Amino acid sequence: MATVPLHPTGDRSSPVPPPGTHRFFNAAFSLPGRILVSWPLAGGLVAGGFLVAATTLSPQMTLSGVPQMTTLLFLVGAGAGLAHGALLGYLCHDPARTRVQVLRTMMCASVWVIPGLLLAWVATMWISLTTSMLVGSTPTILGMVWLGVSWLFGAAVLVWAALTGFQGIMAALRRWPGVRFSAAVTSIAFAVLLTLFLANPPEIWFTELRVTSVGAVFLAFGASVWITMPVVIVLYRLAQRVVARRAS
Question: Domain residue spans in the chain?
């Protein structure tokens, strides 16, 4: 006769759920999972939404060109956020867990990335039209509602990504000494890039948009975190291996 596995407390009325039932939910709520899900959303929102909204639109820029540019920047930001979220999620995992367990958890959490990106893309499209709606035309009540909801959603995602990122960085600092050095170099790179971008605001590639002071902050932060930090981490790890081989 088939038996029902008992709950650890011995209560027959509370059968243990079969393996894998809550795997996707547990993975999404773990720290590596939260980073893996929140960072692509935040990257797409910053690059495609907030950065475009913070730029100075040229007089020749029309609404027909905004969706294509916003989608392109959203994909670039989401891809960069996914790559860096996966890297930080792996670096901050619990030392008691094996590499296979961590990668399996992150793969389960990645299932939530696609629906999250769809919602973030819709919000990004509305955020990118902020300047056009408030300055270029008379906004409708429904449009203003969607715009406000999109900004609230975007702000909530950025706060979520910042909190999980801070927790992940702190966990990684305790486990990987090289992350501390990489964070210091990234901070210096951010200060240098911000100074250069504020002195001479750059123009976004393949567009006629030149960033404002707010856009310069976003651009300097993204360039330092998405480019400088991973390069420094990789070079630091390679240098550690070279020193270890020479010492042996």
Answer: 23-247
